[in-house]
Amino acid sequence: MPITPETVDQIRAAIDRDRLLDTAISLIEVPSPTREAKEGLDRLDSILTAEGLHVERPDADYPECPAVAARYQSGSPGRTLQFQGHMDTVHLPYFPPRVENGTLYGSGCSDMKGGIAAMVEAMRALRDTGLLPGGEILITSTDLHEAPWGEGEQIRGMVKAGYVGDGVLIPEYLHDCLPVVGRGMAVLDVRVRRQGIPVHEVLGGMEQPNVIHAGAALVRRLEELDRDLATRPSHPLGGRPSLFVGKIDSGEMFNQSPTEFRLEGTRRWLPGTDHTEVEQEFRSILSEIEARDGIAVDGTFMYLAPPFELDQAHSLVTEFQSAYAATTGAELPLGFKPVLDDGNNIARLSDAPPITHGPHALGAHTVDEEVPVDELVRVAIVYALTAIGFCGGGEA
Fold it and tell me: Is the pLDDT of residue 396 over 60?
């Protein structure tokens, strides 16, 4: 169904800014760190139930915290457009919601309870206007998104159980491009150890195998690998593969020989690369370090999701661009998704194309999250207009 100026005006008028903001505040009021998001999902359940929707609670491989699934149906044949948002937040101190000068603050407002509120409001606007020409909206929300506490297990369980649309919109905080390429990702966790106990430097410590020296050699080798990755074929939109070290730790004080060195980081790779090859390359470096006398190395390669690439001619891509242009006056440039989100797992397990698009928000994965309420309104309009074009475009 084509998007007319009259349709845009009707959707704009149907988006209730105060109702959207109240929904976001209600979700943020409930702390929901990863693996502990049940109360947040319960709150979303109550919000959707109050809107007259039948809410299902599939366990999706995590019965301790059932997911949320609800459908708004047009009553006519058509496609299913899924709005998927993760309810869990990173493990940082909790800050309650507040609104100042048109900006919403609080834990999870950027990542991604504000986005969830926007997708709920988009559904309300479609219901209140009756403009959804066919098909249905499937609203889902899950736990187990944020690594390293979760590994995306629940969204994979949802897809395997059939809770997936013909296309998916994900309101993460990527806003300035249409990400048609996403890299695969693994979290790296390495422990370099020696036997024995920590000892004073001059009371035997200098004679012990040095885990810090071995750890430094590991850091150098990983740096060399990243430099090598920079010379390998890149993707015109997706950039290059990478290895990043974000944390190292060892020792308790300046003159004590420690027994352990720990390193954490990420490895990202492009479409066309198999994750088993990536892991094998990583483990070969660990074997080099372990060849040192008295040194043992244990490494975890936490494979989170594969890379993906969207068909740029798919109707969801074209309808989304039409909806975005009708809302803002211009289409988004094509680009790549620098972060890992549920779209990678959805693309891995289904034929549904996932588009990540959310508000221009700040402070994700910090204690200073913020999002302009106008941005949440904009996302709700784009989602509703995308649904009008996509869901009525034919049978699934």
Answer: no
